Amino acid sequence: MAKIDTDVLLIAGHYQATEQIDAFLKKQGYTIAWVETASEVQMACEKSSFKVVLCSLNLRQGYGLDVLRYLIEFYPSLPVVMMAQSAILQDVLNALRSGACDFFIQPQYDLPSLFRSIQKNIRKYRALLDNDAYRKALEENNLQLQLSLKELENDQKAGRHVQQRLFPVSGQELNGCHFSHQLIPSLYLSGDFIDYIALTPEVTFFYLADISGHGASSAFVTVLLKNLSGRFVKSYRRKADSDILSPVVMLQRINQELLETPLGKHLTIVLGVIDQRQNTLCYSVGGHYPLPIFTDESGSRFLSGGGMPVGLFPEPHFEEHVLPLRDIGKWSLTVFSDGILEVMEGRLQDKEQRLLELVQSCDHVPERIVNELDLTALELPDDIALLSVRKI
Amino acid sequence: MAKIDTDVLLIAGHYQATEQIDAFLKKQGYTIAWVETASEVQMACEKSSFKVVLCSLNLRQGYGLDVLRYLIEFYPSLPVVMMAQSAILQDVLNALRSGACDFFIQPQYDLPSLFRSIQKNIRKYRALLDNDAYRKALEENNLQLQLSLKELENDQKAGRHVQQRLFPVSGQELNGCHFSHQLIPSLYLSGDFIDYIALTPEVTFFYLADISGHGASSAFVTVLLKNLSGRFVKSYRRKADSDILSPVVMLQRINQELLETPLGKHLTIVLGVIDQRQNTLCYSVGGHYPLPIFTDESGSRFLSGGGMPVGLFPEPHFEEHVLPLRDIGKWSLTVFSDGILEVMEGRLQDKEQRLLELVQSCDHVPERIVNELDLTALELPDDIALLSVRKI
């Protein structure tokens, strides 16, 4: 049963002084429960909740100090003000030591002072209750937030787990080249995508795409992209067409597909084909930045690029570049998504220079680059992807 | 500068009694800062943080009550125990009224009692500080949780926004039928998917699919499904093939595509074609439950089904059912995803009966069914999708 809310519990005999207190407090707007004997206190406390207790040291039945000790034991935060018609020093000290928060002698002569004490103690008690209630609300809120967060995190983790299946196994040897990659999504789901696949024992196809935005909405497009390139691989293998051998044709097909899909997303991409028969690297850049970094015996440089983002324009312009590899011994190629630039400081030109030095000092090994920049420890504003192709 | 942590601030002249207190407390293991005059108190409090103050009423310089009032004003939670070599009742009452938490006369004779008081007050003060620290930690934790949750929610909302684009506009008239749907995801992203499209002015294609699981990972497959069916629509329109006219062929193609995609997901589906020339509803059920509900003048019934889930088996079995519509005037068809069964109570048989009554009483209108079951107010364990086709 809910307790009745009462301001003051007055425990005192029916004297003129007590009546004055009762009348005075009522006049101040307080609700009062008045009991005369110690034996009535327990029931009063079970029936009502009080904000302050005003207890006489001298009761007709029972002892005020016993009542005080009972209250302190069972309602430790409830303030108890003691009072007496007359008292000796030791009475006051005893009351104090037993937990009284104030003591009044002959209060009828100083009702305003008693009133102030009651006000102050009620205020303190309320603050205590408020504080308790606030803490409880915080705790509950916290628990609720943790549950909601856990639910969303689990959903994202499940999504991430499924998305991981779309990526190739990093560290593969395909037709004389070592392919590896690193992917650090800013949240759980990645809007960057990478794939590499040996079409024949002599031709290898690869790409790195960076879908506009990041997170769940961009991750949708990675699924499409994987599906699309998979279809082209399939139709090439069953000799239906050889679209996949031409990076420009591939960009046009992806462009068309994205425009037809109502997702409203576009992407930038570097897409290439390494042909061992002709000893060439044929690639196209669809609005991608930074440009691919190529390293041979003469050092590292950005390859030339050009071309529009993919999925924005009905008639986009793309370029196909052919890099002859015949006279080059060892070479390496590294492609970054533009998230890498957001974790570097300085002017764009400095960042580009830094990237060139970085891939060279890390020998185009994605893991080393990630460690060098301490990427996994950072809060990333965008996904970061690195694709590396190294001639074995 | 960090304050030195000291247990007791002792403010008293150098009497034998004070020395006894100092020695006694030190023996109990307390650290003590001892100042003799009121003027030293401020600096002591700036230098150290105390857990309790022991202040003499009678100081050589300054008044103990003034020190008490200063401490209560600037360090309101710090407990102050007053003491005096001798005192009158009014001194004690004044100290009490000014905020002292205890008072001792000639403490040298009752050091254990003073010690208990100090212990008790230190304990209370510590609890107060701990409570404050705990509340602050809760508040900070709360804020952090809210930020993390907001980030994930925003990501999911963005994903949801993009996913919404894949769905047809609900409430379309296509070739003499009214198509509408409702979709209530259990989180943000849906693993249920619906589409309907007029292939020609006489042939309409539709499906409702329920992808295994729910949330982000399942939502990936809705993108694939939309893309796949879009491709079949396209190839039908450019007369490359008419696979889309056969529900069984479509299920086989979707099955194959899912098996080839490394997402590791399967789905159940009801897929149909309404042909006005032949006046037929041709449909297939891929492991979907509950079965589609068909209503004509003779009442509502579940259509016959059969067929395996899609994307699990390399050689699945699907059936094609043809329902002649020639002799039927008005008819309606409603398909639910199985999430609907999870919010209904009772045995499966009862739920099926309830569904039949529900679609009839709600006249196959998805909005009414959603309202009738109060679905938007529920915490859904799985996505719920409803597709309705009504002959106009």
UniProtKB/TrEMBL annotation, chains A, B:
Keyword hit for Nucleus: no
The keyword Hydrolase belongs to this UniProt entry's keyword annotation: yes
Domain Response regulatory: 7-121
Highest taxon listed in the record's lineage: Bacteria
A matching Pfam family: SpoIIE
Keywords from the named record: Hydrolase
An annotated Gene Ontology molecular function: phosphatase activity
InterPro entries assigned: Bact_Sigma-Reg, CheY-like_superfamily, PPM-type-like_dom_sf, PPM-type_phosphatase-like_dom, Sig_transdc_resp-reg_receiver
GO biological processes: phosphorelay signal transduction system
Name recorded for this polypeptide: Response regulatory domain-containing protein
Source organism per UniProt: Proteobacteria bacterium 228
